[in-house]
Each structure stands twice: as C-alpha cells, then as structure tokens.
Amino acid sequence: KTKATIFAERIGVKNFSASQGWMEKFGKRHCIKMNRIHGEAGSTDIELLQIDKAAIKEKIEGYSARDIYNFDETALFYAAPPRTTISHQKFSGWKDNKKRLTVGLLCNADGTDKWSDVLMIGHARRPNCFNKNNKKQEASDHGFSMYHYNSNAWMTRSIFHVFLRRFDHAMKAQKRKVLLILDNFSGHIVDYTPTNVELLFLPPNTTSHLQPLDGGIIRAFKAYFKRKQYAKAYQYIGMIQNGNQDKIGPIEKIFEIDQLWAMKWIREAWESVSAKTIENCWNATIFRFIEDEDSEGSSKIIYWS
C-alpha cells in the first residue's frame, strides 16, 4: 500500500487511496495472494468446558469498568522477518530470528487506564545496546523501570510478585479497590495477598475466549509494533536501491533492530492502541460470556459504566 501511494504521487494520479478494497482487487487482478510461510492454530470449544459462569459474573458485577483490569504477557520476536508476503507462488522465507522480549500488558475495561511503563523481560541485565561511551547502563537509565531479565526472557513468579506489589501499591495510593483478571499460568500464583487488588483467575483453556488481551488487544499492539519494523525495513531497502548498501550491511538484516529500539517501539506501540479497541475487546470476550438473557431468550451484552 505504501509503495502504491508513492507510485501514484510520482505519476501524478490524484485522489488515489490505497484502501483494503483496492489491495484485494489488485491481488485478484494479478493473481497475487497472501501466502503464509508457516504457522499453526488451535481452538477450544468453550461450550464443552465446565465453567462456573455465575461466580465469574458475580465478581465482575461488583466493580465498574474503570476498576476491572486484565494482565497478560506475550512473547515478541522483535527482529523476526514476516511470515506472510504477497506473491504469485509459495516460497521459502528467511531463517527465524529468535531474539525476543516478553511483554506484560495491563489495561482496564473502559480503556482509560493502560500502564505506559510496560513490563518487559529480556535475556541480559545490561544488553549491549545500553552501553554508551563504555558506561554500563541499566534499563532504568533509559526510562524503563519495569525491565527484568533472566536466561530465558520468561515471566517468573518472582517477577510477577514484584509487578503485583507495585500495582497493588499504586491502587492503594489512589484509594481504589480493583479486580485483576489473570489466566491460570502458574507464574501468576505468588505468595502475596494484595490489599486493594482482588484476583480473578480464568479457568484453564479459556483465555483465547474470555481474556480481553487475548481477544484482540495484543494482536493490535503487535500490529503497531510490526508497522514500525516494516517502515524501517522499507527505508532500509530504499537506501540499498540508492547505492548505500556498503553503509548499512546485507539485505538479510533489513528486519533487525537492537533491543533498546525494540523497547522504545514497544512503549510507542502500546500507546497507539486506542481505548475503543480495548473496550470492544472486553465486550467481545469476558463481558459477552457473562451476558444477560432477556425474557425472550435473546442475549443482551452488559456494559459497565
């Protein structure tokens, strides 16, 4: 779409819009389609699971939308090449880049409160990208006070313990009682009893259906991140076309970024996710699941104010 817009400007085509409809017609006209290099998917029939809907509903109805939060973590392979592209035929992709950060995201049900100081977990205490003028810098020196590290870059009980205490203290300072919805990951079960945060653990195998962050919020966040990565790659290719390849390295590196840039883009991508997107995902997941039914048997979604 970006390239088509540039071509339109170069040849003087006015009022051109590279819309999704235009993209689909362009692909159909030239027999080009989106080919996935590899991937997998799974699903769970939530109707077959034994879930105490009444207990979940009772807890949620005790809070306003502003005071209902969801926290979840996701792996972000920040230097990985895309798994899809447009082409006439299938072809092999690049070797996967395994550089990753685990990102923990927190937001409330009306989208008005999402922590901009995103929880991030990396491999190293002091990644090379933090070093400047041979000075050993911490992540906090760059404004990331919620950066943790371990050999696997995974969420652990000790890290979640620190996060939960911090969240609880923040709610206490605001004199608020809130509900925090979590999946049943064992790392979320810690030896700490919050005073201002009530925990609600979702039943096993239900997160893709009930958890708002898994219902589209994380997907939107990653899309904003990838947009930044692909814009950088597009700029990289332009430099190669202009004969500057000796200054920027081989074509295989067009999607790579260092960890510090990834962390900055993570924060910016999270800030780009709109309150409306967050609200819609809540209404499409946990709120839809506990919806009321009117006397005629038709469903009616509950909207908390």
UniProtKB/TrEMBL annotation:
An MF annotation (GO) of this entry: DNA binding
InterPro entries according to UniProt: CenT-Element_Derived, DDE_SF_endonuclease_dom, HTH_CenpB_DNA-bd_dom, RNaseH_sf
Domain HTH CENPB-type: 1-36
Entry keyword Transmembrane helix: no
Keywords assigned by UniProt, alphabetized: DNA-binding, Homeobox
Cellular-component GO terms for this entry: nucleus
Keyword Amino-acid biosynthesis appears in the UniProt entry: no
Name the UniProt record assigns to this protein: Homeodomain-like DNA binding domain-containing transcription factor
Protein's organism: Phycomyces blakesleeanus (strain ATCC 8743b / DSM 1359 / FGSC 10004 / NBRC 33097 / NRRL 1555)
